[in-house]
Amino acid sequence: MKILSICGSPRRGNSEAILLELQKIFKSKGVDNEIILLRQQNINRCHGCIEICNPAGVCCQQDDVKSIIDKMVQSDGLIIISPNYFQMPPGILKDFMDRTCIIFASGKDKILKFKKTAIIAVGADEAKESEVCAENIANLYCRYVGKVVAIKAFQTHSELKGNYDDVFTSGLNPSIKSDLQTIVEALLK
Ligand SMILES: Cc1cc2nc3c(=O)[nH]c(=O)nc-3n(C[C@H](O)[C@H](O)[C@H](O)COP(=O)(O)O)c2cc1C
Q1: Domain that holds residue 8
Q2: Domains in the chain, number
Q3: Other beta carbons less than 10 A from residue 81's beta carbon
Q4: Which residue's CA is minimally distant from atom 30 of ligand 1?
Q5: Is this structure's pTM higher than 0.70?
Q6: pLDDT tens string 138-187
């Protein structure tokens, strides 16, 4: 069993801290869990040249996107975590999503649309605000990529001031540990 986690934050922040906590839970259950930090990957922006990639079935750009898509296909479940930037994902995550458009031309959409997927968002506003970001990803991107089994949002202090995991320490998310357990259970069910 393998779960792939994709971190959409451009910094070492709360998104990453949450994925590390989830990884501990997976490890305790004997489940393999790889975390991909998009900020550490070489991901070019989509050129929009679908007249080339559609007939060819491959993207004309050679960077890390192909190997990430292959890992998505090979996984048993996905987690996508996104900071809330104006109720949307940050550019780094949107760039990655745009590049996954190649799944249609390559036929991988038929596999990915059935992949159990959890969507998590974090933001400085109340969790219900960042839930909009999570739902936007779930309702719009995951119409094509992933079968959503969990949607959750958490509140952060936003300014890290030397910490990177205030989502756990601030007291703003009193049930975060059990919420993460619930997400894991939904993915492993
Ligand atoms: C460009 C930008 C836009 C943001 N917009 C929002 C927002 O609309 N709502 C919100 O709750 N937080 C917003 N934030 C705060 C981030 O969501 C918050 O800092 C979050 O912790 C970032 O996730 P990270 O710690 O994983 O990097 C914004 C931050 C940035 C840099």
Answers
A1: 2-188
A2: 1
A3: 27
A4: 85
A5: yes
A6: 999 999 999 999 999 999 998 888 889 999 999 999 999 999 999 999 99
